[in-house]
Amino acid sequence: MRRLRTTADVQDASDDPMVRWAAQALSSGGAAWAHGDAVAVHAPSLTRRRRLVLSGPAECVASLLAAHGRGVELRPLLERPLALEVASLMPTPWLEDKPFGWMDRSGTLDLPAEATWLRSSEGVEPLLREANPNSWAWPGEKGVRRWAGVHEDGELVATAAEAWSSTDVGFMMGVAVRPSCTNQGLGSRICQFVASSLLTLYGTCALFVENYNAPAIAVYRKLGFAYRDVTTLLPAA
């Protein structure tokens, strides 16, 4: 088991976008380790959670989890099939928490018209409270960098944020469309704008999505994103 001390070390050790995304934590109190072909990144505060992001062969991941996975409110995050296999290998019981989805894509994407990066976040919070009150990204929150929007008749009707991007993985969160303006393609338009911008900057764009949100997943798939079931593990009491 070896320590990975820089983001570049993590990038050399893993081509998994989720691990590479988590590597941003190394500049803010995080740590990373490799064991065989597996990598673990401890991110003390990433999207509101203290995370341990893991990827690689199950036996090596299990060793990393055993060595670094215990802690108050720590949430090991990994692909769901891997998580279930790893849990079966652990000497002490681990339970699956709530599963959800990770989606990512690379390459390029056309930049749509009629969407822009906002000069300020004015109007974003009321729209989120109306259309996406469970959003993980909010104006002024640490790690949330900027907001994009679509306006109609001077009114903000769709928004999405760049939040928690790493050096080579741009991250999109906070997607919302005013309920009175649904079924007009606004969600696809704002997501395409943000994804296109982040792909240009970072080469890869990623996001979290609820695994039951079929309409959102369908929009992201049409934009070229691939879906992966992910989950967090919790130590049994």
UniProtKB/TrEMBL annotation:
Source organism (scientific name): Lentzea flaviverrucosa
SUPFAM superfamilies linked: Acyl-CoA N-acyltransferases (Nat)
Pfam families given in the database record: Acetyltransf_1
Keyword Transferase: yes
Domain N-acetyltransferase: 95-237
GO MF term (any one): acyltransferase activity, transferring groups other than amino-acyl groups
Protein name: Acetyltransferase (GNAT) family protein
Top-level taxon of the source organism: Bacteria
Keywords assigned by UniProt, alphabetized: Transferase
This protein's record includes keyword Transferase: yes
